[in-house]
Design brief:
Dihydrodipicolinate Reductase, domain 2; Rossmann fold; globular; 8-stranded mixed sheet; 327 residues; 14 strands; 6-stranded parallel sheet; binds NADP nicotinamide-adenine-dinucleotide phosphate
């Protein structure tokens, strides 16, 4: 696999950003695009110089020249579309949130394992140089033992009830759309599933959470206080508090290029690392690296962790009484 040959399923907003990042990966190529509409596939293929386009997802996954498919449909389609790809023998990078709930996520993970294929949730933040540096600082003990995380990600979208952000039938709501970022950031720091999960959400007119706060408890008394919103702009920053110091990731922590280490009494250290392209190149590179060495999951974003995240979100939604129509 000298060149990793990509297919894109669902050429919407995020697929454009991913294709832009992918273009900056030297040993990867976008070879095909699949849409429910051939015209949309053609326009996207033209814009991003893909050789082939298809008017159905079935045709895309049947293309023998595609090694891995990037699933970029709305949350409600992730399970069905990932299973379609895996059952056609394709490796998959699936957009976040991986699934609507843990039940769907388990089906996807089991299918990947049964077919001996690579599968990963596209938590693009995880693969950025800043996050690598944060893990390094933690491993080196620069802040002692991490004891607490605070992180939030909220933005104010217009009130469009049919949009994927607010539409229950597309898995709308702030938790699944952006709450996943502070949750995934925390699980990176603490490296385990929370033992206790509690939260409160403001359920909007469409019946999904427009904003939410969450408190998580981990072993040895470690805690996280997180927030998310799709109708409320928040600081979009993250802090890790340790026994010997703190790490700050300023806005936008989830795709930022800066982290600041405050090591107790010592002078602060600023780490700046501009993205080579738009930040999506790093997750594409990680998929390529894994495929080349035959890994079926990334050690940086394991499927087990994806299942922790889905279980945590399920627990929160039970507390809020939020059940999606497809559940
Ligand atoms: N990593 C990030 O930074 C990031 C940012 C934004 C979104 N996302 C994730 O990416 C996914 C897609 O978000 P997006 O903003 O790109 O959405 P979008 O612009 O609506 O695009 C989704 C695409 O999926 C296809 N699709 C398949 N079934 C659909 C359905 N029932 N309704 C609507 N579209 C459907 C459509 O393409 P065709 O009909 O042409 O096939 C559509 O263009 C979401 O899960 C979201 O959480 C990630």
């Amino acid at each position: 696999m000298s060149i990793i040959r990509w297919g894109i399923l669902g050429p919407g907003n995020i697929a454009k950003k991913f294709a832009t990042g992918l273009a900056a990966v030297p040993d990867a190529r976008l070879v095909a695009v699949g849409s429910r509409d051939a015209g949309r596939a053609k326009a996207f293929a033209h814009e991003f110089a893909a050789e082939k386009y298809y008017g159905s997802y079935e045709e895309l996954v049947a293309d023998a020249e595609v090694d891995v498919v990037y699933v970029a449909s709305p949350h409600s389609g992730h399970c069905e579309h990932t299973l379609l790809c895996l059952n056609a023998g394709k490796a998959v990078l699936c957009e976040k949130p991986f699934a609507i709930n843990e039940r769907e996520a388990l089906r996807m993970v089991e299918c990947a394992r049964a077919n001996n294929l690579f599968l990963m949730e596209a938590i693009w933040m995880r693969f950025m140089p800043v996050q690598t540096q944060v893990r390094k600082w933690i491993q080196q003990g620069t802040i002692g033992e991490p004891r607490m995380v605070q992180a939030d990600l909220g933005f104010r979208a217009p009130f469009q009830p049919e949009s994927r952000l607010l539409n229950p039938s597309l898995g709308g709501g702030s938790l699944l759309d952006v709450g996943i970022y502070p949750l995934a950031f925390t699980s990176m720091v603490f490296g385990e599933e929370p033992q206790a999960v509690t939260g409160y959400a403001d359920m909007g007119q469409t019946g999904v959470d427009e904003q939410a706060v969450m408190t998580l408890g981990y072993t040895r008394g470690r805690l996280a206080q997180l927030a998310c919103g799709v109708r409320t702009r928040t600081s979009q920053a993250a802090w890790i508090y340790g026994t010997e110091g703190m790490i700050h990731l300023p806005e936008p922590f989830w795709h930022g290029t800066r982290a600041v280490l405050h090591p107790g009494e010592k002078t602060e250290v600023v780490f700046d690392h501009p993205h080579r392209a738009n930040g999506y190149e790093y997750e594409a590179e990680e998929v390529g690296r894994c495929l080349r060495v035959g890994l079926k999951e990334s050690p940086l974003m394991k499927l087990e962790e994806t299942l922790w995240l889905d279980r945590t979100m399920d627990q929160l939604r039970v507390q809020w009484g939020l059940r999606y129509p497809m559940e």
